[in-house]
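== Protein entry: sequence and backbone fold ==
=== Local backbone shapes as whole numbers ===
==== Amino acids and backbone structure tokens ====
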Amino acid sequence: MTVQDLIVENHRRMQEMYSGFNPLTGEGAPLERQWLHIPDFTIPKQFVPLDMLKNKLIRLIIEAGTLQKFIENELDQEYTPETKDRLIKELCLIRSRCDFCFWAYMFVKIKPKAGGDMIRFRLRHEQRILLTELEKMRFAGLPIRIILLKARQWGGSTLVQIYMAWIQLMHKTGWYSNIVAQTLSTSRTIKAMYSKLLENYPSWLLDIPNQQLEFSPYEGSSSASIITYGKATNKTIARDTVINIATYENPNATRGTDNALIHYSEVAIWSETLGKKPEDLIRSISGGLLEVPLTMEVMESTANGTGNYFHREWERAKRGESNRTPVFIPWYFIEQDSIPVQNENDFASWLLENKNNDANPEGFLDPGKYYWYLWEQGATFAGINWYRTKRKGFADHADMASEAPSNDIEAFKHSGKRVFDIYRIEDLKKNTRPPRFIGDIQGQATIGKKALLQLKFKQDKQGILQIWELPETDIQVRHRYLVTVDVGGRSRGSDYSVISVIDRFPMLLGGKPEIVAQWRGHIDHYLLAWKAAQIAQFYGKALLVIESNTLETKDKERDTDGDHTEFILNQIADVYDNLYARSNSETDIREGKPRKWGFHTNTATKPLIIDHLVTCVRNAAWIERDINATDELGFYEKKDNGSYGAISGQHDDILMTRAIGLYICYREMELPKIIENKTKKRTNNKPLTA
């Protein structure tokens, strides 16, 4: 790109953000639209949603050509200011049902953040992005389900609440809504937007004479309100529209409510306590929500670190495992985050100069390169100039990124120091996918020599062995497969045990090793070791590396049985001849001590394998298939005391199998070697026996 190319593109982006939207004409608004030309209408040319053109009255007016001809020829009435005004009101009502942007600007007033008089609700650029997602689902006839990650306050909650009001006031009766926030004051603040709307809302839109609309207590409730009009002593229900407010701390007000619209606010700060979890409350409220058009559930929050319920739901939505659509609005799409540049040519030249700067090792791009990254993501010159100015007030880029995140990864920055490059983790995620097979490996027995005989893979949806690729049998390759084991606990609340399988065959041709199978669960240590041996035998008698720390100490979980596991690895070694053994010290060799089976993770070896894994992540040195593995990389941090570990509430068991496995894969094992071609080839990747 040239300097002039950047300037032209910047003008286009500025036009889209600031002057390309007109809620009256419909230009720049969401939804597929078409021009409607009525010469004697208040707005002669309107760019309206397609469903408005399907309305019978609109079609008749289009055929007539003008309002006057329609009134005189179709209605057979005299064309007067009164008849024209009635028809204009009817057209406004039709468009208001089809076009949220028009309705919001014409009939909704909000309080500006800077104070002052109420103003028309004209959607800003960032709000139109969210509205586009809402409208996609509505127009497709789908239930509206959104999880909204907010960079900071830009009116996301305001839009959600007013959009719900639009559904209640313009589309549905008996469509009750519920607002649930951390505190009652927050719930009331959100509801206050609706109250302000009613104060200025024309009652003729509800086919009511000129009356003041307001909320009144619903059936004596202090938390539920219904829209009414009339004198204080004789309130009349204007519409069967009830809005309820509740809090996470005191959710009793939600019980027994009939909800069609639900707004969960600041979910990331809903703390989990004994007997109370965010997911339990949301399940109880949303469980009765019908899966029909115009029902709506929005879960919104600013980020509050990683590992909490909101973060987990965000990640599920990103992976397509949730019915919620993830929406994140980066800071550079927020209109107010901008400072005009003095000289466009100089600024564009500066951007191009920073295009090829390298990334730094802290998990964030070098500041210069980062500005070019912002440009590539869609930021304007004025936005990047704002960011560069704001950045001077922060000690490092990570803190700035947390304050003004450019993507959801930065938004979820946690308090510890990340070990792995967050952008490289995203690169690894691109290769993750669901397993091809799920089930278990079975032999003639569960333990002992017979456990390794006549091995078969049995598919079972309830199994915990995930397989992306079954073992190849068409050729025989030495040093191909590597199996690593991280030993956890056997109880449900303890750490998981993980068995990972790495296929090293691509390294023969200069490629990358690949994760092809993984077992993860809770099991007795003795059975875990034999399960690992079965999987290793199944994968071509792979090198079996068992992390030995737990097995070399007293098994506290089985202490009451008086059965310890100091000799598990020796028993495995008696029948499996490709078990990993670490090097004995010179003293041990002189004294004739037996080989030490397994990989021992300690203060000397752990930094070694973690540093190597950092390099592997940076260079994308393997093909990762499990999304949970990349999640664990993001949760891993260096503690204040210098140790490594997962953040509170998360695990690192999969990660440790990658750290140990990749270290041995690259540092200790010979390259794979083809030793024999076989005539029988496996077809269609069907389950095999070993």
User: Anything to note?
Assistant: Residues 359-364, 554-565 have pLDDT under 50 and may be disordered. The chain has 22 helices and 26 strands.
